[in-house]
Amino acid sequence: HFPPQHLLQLELAPGVPLLASMSMSAKEWLRDADAVQQWAARHDLPKLLAQSGDFIRIPYLLPDFVAEWALQAFQKLPEKNWERTSASDRNDADYADSIPHHFSLFEVEDHEALLSISKLLWLLLPKTLPNFTAARYGPADHIAPHDDLVLEHYTSKEVSRLAKCYDPEGSYRDGALGLKPWRGNRCFTREIAAVYYLNKDWPSDVGGDFVDLTTGQKYLPEFNTLVAFRVPRMHEVTAVESIRLRRYSIFGWWLQPEDDSKAEPEVEKPSNVVKKRPAAELAVVKKRPAAAPQAGKRARA
Questions:
Q1: What tens digit of pLDDT does each residue of 209-238 get?
Q2: In angstroms, rounded to a whole number, what is the distance separating the alpha carbons of residues 127 and 132?
C-alpha cells in the first residue's frame, strides 16, 4: 500500500561498518550523537506519510543490536512492574475512552533501555511533546476499534518533567521541549501515532495483528518494525490466541499544543482528563489506552 522506498532497511547504523557494528553495544551507539542524528535524518515522517496515504510501516527501524537490547529489557521486566489495564477494571471503567481492551502497560520514563528507545522515536519529530508507553499483550489481550482522537492536558511543570527525561540537555528546548512556560492547563492534540514492535518470529495464526480499518490491511507485530499514522485513523489489535507468547511494543503519540489562548485556568482537573506523568508519579495518576472519545466528553489514554 506504499512505495517500496518506505521499507527502509536500517540494520546498521549509518556510517558504521559491519564488523564494527557487531562489536558495538547499544549503549555505545546511543552515546554516538552523530550516528543517532544520521539515523533520525533518514526518516522524514511527515514526508513519508504524505506519500503513503498517512500510514507507513518501516521494518528494520533501528540497528539490530539496539532492537535486541530493547527486547531483552522487555523480557527482564518483573511481573510486578506491569500495570494491567482493561475497560472492565475499576480504574478504567468510567473513562470516556473505555472501549473494550485488555493488555499490560509499563511507563518508560524510569527505565534506561525503554526510555532510550522512546527518545529515538521522539527524535523523528523532536518539535513535539512525546507520549510513549511500553505494552505487553498476553492470551486474549486486544483493543477494539478506535481512532486515537483524544485530547491530552498538561501543565507547564508537567511538560518540564517530561523534557528532563527526553531532552535533559535542552538541545530542542526554548522553554520545555520548545514551548514557552504557560499558566494553567494546556490542550495537546495527537498528531501522529506510533507502534514500535519487538516480537521475533511472530506466527501469523496467533492473533495480535494490527488492523488498519481504513484499508482492511492486517500487519503482524514484527520485530524491529515501526507502524505510524496520522490521527484520527480507525484501527484495532486482534486478540492474542497464544498462551505462551507475549507481544511487546512501545506505543504512543507525537503531540502538538493547541493555541496558547486555549490554556485553562489553573484549577483541579476532572478525573477523566488525559495526562501523561513521569513514572515517579504513577502512584497518583496512571495512563490509559487510547480510543475514540465520546461526544461532549474529554477522554484519556
A1: 999 999 999 999 999 999 999 999 999 999
A2: 15
